[in-house]
Design a protein that fits this description.
Helices cover about 55% and strands about 10% of the residues. By secondary structure, the chain is an alpha/beta fold. It has two domains: about 30-130, no CATH class; about 130-425, Alpha-Beta Barrel (TIM Barrel), CATH 3.20.20. α16 links the parallel β8 and β9 (about 395-400). The longest helix has 23 residues, at about 165-185. The chain is globular. It binds flavin-adenine dinucleotide (FAD).
């Protein structure tokens, strides 16, 4: 199909998705206070730096109040009190509005708190929207409700970097417990044809996303052998349990320096005879890496060379460590491994989407999962799948809980399968997760930020 015809179909899908957003249109700001706070926190480089510092400080905090205090101090240091604080000289309309709305968000009287403190409390309140519960058990009601609304899930166990073997062991135990709980919970959910099957067979209801770096303290690019040894036994045990429970195990991708170790380990284990029939498994591919096409070809060649009973899922994302990769490369004088032009990144994402869907249409036992909140990226996948005459269940769309709730509703309204990535963990871990997502998705380059500020739909759906 030529590019112009494809693009016409993308526009149709884009408009359908936009019409399915809960407001029926684009200008549906989330809770006003949250929007304002996000703008305020992210719009200033010094406050943005304070948020990055907060993510670093977070492992040393053990309670919500400690976290709120640290965040509040960092924001104040960065200038929050001086420019936005209550009772600190004249404040203009927007700033006093921020204080008032933050106070409402946090349940405090207006101007009772310095704005930095109110913002920190606001972050704590918002974290609830992003995490589904402390663990799978606590999230049971939410997971069932998502299922009843036509959304399947994958769980992600929040926590910070694993620094000791004990922490690696603990993470593996949490994964084990979560898989068991999910298998039990899923068994009680009502049948849902769109969520339970696709043309390649049944889809496991229990679905866990795993961070291999959390299974071992040693995952370093300069000592990959040691890392592989440490993580191998734990990942192996999880694959065996997933097979026993008929669950899906998905490996997340993190920074580039760990990609090779993680991919090598996962594919090596999965190629074992004991896993020929299952479990269902998959890995993340980050399109912002300029060499991601080679990585995709490697994965496709592996799937072709290792026929298994359960199809392999590739979750295509843009990548969440953009700032990290850019800064690290600059520090070392390396070539930047990621696209630095936003449109080039989006074009590449579409290119990889087409390659994935072509492979699926060509008969490979592959499940493409298109994970994005960008209506253009999603619409492109749906339009191309139609052009290939793939059945509607063949493409799964995925979003993050909290950020992608409206997008998930829009996908539902279009009758396509959507999976919600649900982080679980305590509020302390949730706050760090939230701050990362805020930093990433409220930057000028973010589709969601543009959508929230009421940008023109035609521009948002333009070919990148
Ligand atoms: C279900 C799910 C699972 C995920 N799992 C992972 C994972 O395992 N690993 C991971 O890294 N990420 C993961 N992510 C996050 C993902 O990589 C994106 O960061 C996030 O989804 C935002 O991208 P978008 O397409 O939704 O939004 P968009 O606004 O369309 O894109 C934002 C993205 O564009 C890229 N970008 C930003 N600025 C520039 C620039 N100047 N030049 C080039 N590119 C730029 C960045 O990747 C940024 O995240 C996941 C996302 C989802 C929905």
């Amino acid at each position: 199909m030529d590019e112009v015809t494809l693009d016409e179909r993308v526009q149709v899908w884009g408009s359908r998705l936009a019409a399915g957003l809960p407001s029926g249109g684009l200008r549906r700001p989330r809770a006003g206070a949250e929007q304002l706070m996000m703008r305020w926190l992210i719009g200033d480089p010094r406050l943005r730096a304070a948020l990055f510092r907060f993510v670093d400080v977070r492992p040393a905090c053990h309670s919500r109040s400690e976290l709120v205090r640290h965040l509040s101090e960092l924001l104040e240091e960065a200038g929050g009190r001086e420019r936005f604080g209550a009772g600190e000289g004249p404040v203009d309309g927007e700033h006093s509005g921020v204080a008032r709305r933050l106070a409402r968000l946090t349940g405090r009287r207006a101007l009772e708190l310095p704005t930095a403190a109110a913002a920190a409390l606001g972050v704590a309140s918002m974290a609830h929207r992003f995490i589904a519960g402390e663990d799978a058990e606590a999230a049971a009601g939410e997971l069932r409700s998502l299922w009843e609304h036509g959304r399947c899930v994958t769980l992600d166990l929040l926590g910070e970097a694993t620094l000791t073997e004990g922490e690696g062991e603990l993470y593996a135990e949490r994964c084990t417990q979560t898989l068991r709980t999910l298998a039990q919970l899923g068994a009680a959910w009502q049948p849902a044809p769109m969520l339970d099957h696709d043309g390649l067979g049944p889809l496991p209801r229990a679905n866990l996303s795993v961070k291999v770096s959390a299974l071992t303290p040693h995952l370093r690019a300069n000592a990959p052998r040691r890392a592989l040894e440490a993580a191998r036994e734990r990942l192996l045990a999880l694959l065996r349990l997933a097979r026993e429970l008929d669950a899906h195990l998905h490996v997340d991708m993190e920074s580039l320096d760990t990609r090779e170790s993680i991919t090598e380990l996962f594919l090596e284990l999965l190629a074992r005879d004991e896993f020929v029939a299952g479990p269902s498994a998959g890995i993340v591919l980050q399109a912002y890496l300029t060499d991601s096409e080679e990585q995709l070809e490697r994965l496709l060649a592996w799937v072709e060379g290792n026929p298994r009973g359960a199809p392999f899922t590739v979750r295509l994302v843009k990548g969440a460590y953009w700032d990290h990769e850019v800064v690290l490369a600059a520090q070392h004088g390396w070539r930047t491994p990621v696209f630095t032009d936003r449109r080039a990144c989006d074009r590449h994402y579409e290119h990889l989407t087409r390659r994935l869907l072509d492979a699926r249409a060509g008969g490979l036992a592959l499940r493409p999962a298109i994970a994005s909140h960008n209506l253009r990226s999603l619409a492109h996948a749906l339009a191309y799948a139609d052009a290939l005459r793939l059945e509607p269940e063949a493409v799964e769309l995925q979003v993050l809980r909290g950020l992608g709730d409206d997008t998930a509703a829009a996908i539902n309204a279009c009758g396509r399968r959507v999976r919600v990535y649900c982080p679980v963990g305590d509020l302390v871990a949730g706050m760090a997760y939230l701050v990362r997502r805020l930093l990433e998705n409220t930057s000028n380059d973010s589709f969601l930020a543009a959508l929230g500020s009421g940008a023109d739909l035609r521009l948002l759906l333009e070919r990148p």
